[in-house]
Design a protein that fits this description.
The protein has 724 residues and is mainly beta. It contains 5 helices and 35 strands.
Length: 724
Amino acid sequence: MKIKLTSIALLVGIVAFAQTKNDTIKPKEKEIEAVTVTVRKPTVESKVDRTVFNVANSSILAGNTTWDVLRMTPLVSIDNNDAIKAEGESVTVYINDRKSVFTGKELKEYLKTIPADNLMKVEVITSPSSRYEATGSVINIVLKKRDDEGLKGSVTFNNRQNTKNSQYTNLNLNYHKKSFTQTLIGSYSDNINVQKNSSTYVTYANNSLMEMSSRNEGRYKSPSVSSTSEYALNDKNTVGLILEYYQSNSNSFSNAEGTNYLNNELTSTIQQNQTAIGLNRNLGTNLFYKYYDKEKNRILDINVGTNYYGQSEDSYFLRNIYSNTPSVNEIGVLSDIENRNYYLKIDYTQPLGKSGATFEVGGKMNFNNNIIPNSLYGNQLSGLSPNDAFHYEDNINSLYANYSRTFFKKLETRVGLRYEYTDLRMRQDVSGASRKDSYGTFLPNLLLKYSFSDKYDLSLTYNRNIWRPWYSEFNPFMIPNNDGIYSRGNMDLNPNPSDRLYMKFGILKKYFISARYMFTDQDYWTDYIPGTIPDANGNPQQVTITQESNFNGKVHKYYLYANTNQTFFKNKFTVNMGLGWYYIDNSDFNAKNKIDNNFYISYLSATANLSYTNLFNKNINLSAWVEVGNQSNGNSYTNKPNVFHNISATKIFPKTQMEVSLQLMNIFKRPNYDATSYNQSGFTRSSSKWDWYGASISFVKRFGNQKVKENTKTDVEKDGGGGK
């Protein structure tokens, strides 16, 4: 309680201090001659702590969603579980500097409702300042801000042919008059996804082998609407309200086939069908106030908001087991998840004297109240808990401070410290299992950049991070999966702290060489545990159970990356290429956890983004993207690299403000994830084939003035990457 009251007192003090400064300092009046400057930003900018993917005028936006553009962003990769990673590590996603409440598949479905046409840029912040909730790298999605007088907007129609056909429609409206701006975005998508999986589970102790293959098809009908209202009280003070609503009606079907072997002898075969229907809803609110003195580079930003997420699902499994004692097992899972989030966040930026230094201070109070009720039905409930409700509550209070200054006009510095205090509580109603825990963490960071000249610079950053388990990973209630195995959470999971050291060398503002070192001595990863559950006839049935488990042991990760961004033909043709080399030393980790596998991992990754604007002066834009990457992490190792690629052409009709875009996705090689996960008792090899391939066509009709402007940021944020 003492820490909570201290946090509240400091946050109130920040507001009072900011208002005092606002009232006592009188703005200077200056007459400035109007100058119009037109600058075309490079597609990819490499800054001290981040890589910026400027997509506002890129042809890849037409007909795509924000999720599609993330796949093409340099340094970013997405694994088979729809987890977004930067340079192979987990990230936290922000939208306009506001942390998203979604992760995994939920985040994917939400980002697919945000049209790419609204994107200004994507910032991959590999060395975030103390301003951010420190969980590793950060991806900040910056949306366009329109402020021209009158009504303007766009309508998008997209049809995509993969294994099945999908459609996407979007309407953007923006109205601005004097001090008031209103933005309204509505979208509807009808997507059908198909995925094929195959898995092999090997247990050393009893020499058992289970092989499973499945085909999953899901249909998602997703309407969404968002509203942003903003009113400028004067040239320095702005208030606004953001409302977001997202819904997804899902219907999926899966069929799986498998075999079980014991000592190389066939013991049984399995056939399983699964049907599932679900409804997801999200409602978010954000009330904000912003004071921004452009002349003094002084900012006060206050955000208060709530997020509600609900998911109801009915999943039914029918399993036929053919053995000496055949049986037909039926089991259904009913769940009704409700998550409530409340937060208050205050940030203040203040220049210090004439030295050019900047001081940032702020904090956040964040409350989560989540419940996951699960119920099982059918004839195969023996050995399983038929129902339970998992409650998860946490309160994370954080305070931070950043100090930035440039010395000798050559050395840029930033020193930051963040303190986070976490208080969490969880319990199950029926089983009575519970856990209470609280801990405080100091998270320092440092940034140094030395410019030898306008052509050469060297930067160094250090970050201390902590990655917390997602609330559902704690839930120990066991449920079946669509591939014939069972899964459950683990209440004993611990957060994962890590240290990162990052160095970058810039040459001619076109070539960049960077190196990263990361160290951790504990982590949690997916574990595969053999178990026995009675079948419908009461006979013991061997099953595989997955859960997240704590693993102790040192892991050293080294990363070397070379990148270049070039323009040709009077800035019409842009090329961005990158090549990365990863080296992971798992020797101590594997030895302590008795994992019999290679102690060292080494692999390459590569990306390329190409774009050509106004081909033959006919308003034709071309773009291409290719990524060659691996998904080795933790105790999972990729068996072969994955290749993604996308080719698009957009024709613009200026007089009618129409655009037509054609995309070809992974037409030369279809995505295929193939990895092996090792644990103390055996290993599992899993392969997934996605249907992210085919072609799509989009029609975009614009109306009104489409001019946009950058979101306002301080000079420190723009040039040094020291702020948001």
